[in-house]
Amino acid sequence: MHSYTISLKSIFSTLRPYILGVFTAALINIAIVALCSFMFSVSKTFSSEAVLGVVIGADVICAFVGGYVAARIKKEKGIVCGAIVGGILFILVLTGGMISGFEEVTYRTVLSFGILLIFGALGGIKGVNRKTRIKIK
Q: Is the pTM of this model over 0.90?
């Protein structure tokens, strides 16, 4: 019979790559959306198509970066690691949109889920396969 002990430290060390990946992605998403909303307000052009494009673009960039960061920390299973980060980002974006009343579940929601999973996984692949630099003394 095996005795397994689960400590808070082991749980945190398991979840750490995902937490940091999602946190990094969320910060970048906030920065991109804030910058673009400032640019929209200054230029006085405001179309729903442009806003939707910016939001999707920001989500794609953030899923990739979040997957990359998580996979760099974990150093294995980049596809799974990045896809998990992309899935968590999707849940955060969907929850925020539904709370604010602007998000409805449509085919675009499913498309957004797929896009975030794919780009998160691609970021994870890139993060795991990044070559470490050779230090020359």
A: no
Residues in the chain: 137
The first and second tokens of residue 29, run together, are 């998403």
Residue 137: pLDDT band (50, 70, 90) is low
The pLDDT, as a whole number, for residue 2 is: 64
For residue 9, count other CB atoms closer than 10 A to its CB: 8
**CA separation for the pair 94, 102 (Å, rounded):** 10
Per-residue pLDDT, 1? 56
The CA distance from 72 to 88, in Å, is: 18
Report the 3 state secondary structure along 16-58. Answer: HHHHHHHHHHHHHHHHHHHHHHHHHHHHCCCCHHHHHHHHHHH
- pLDDT tens readout for residues 102-115: 667 777 788 888 99
Residue whose token pair is 């890139």:
126
CB proximity list for 83: less than 8 A, separation 6 or greater: 67, 117, 120, 121, 124
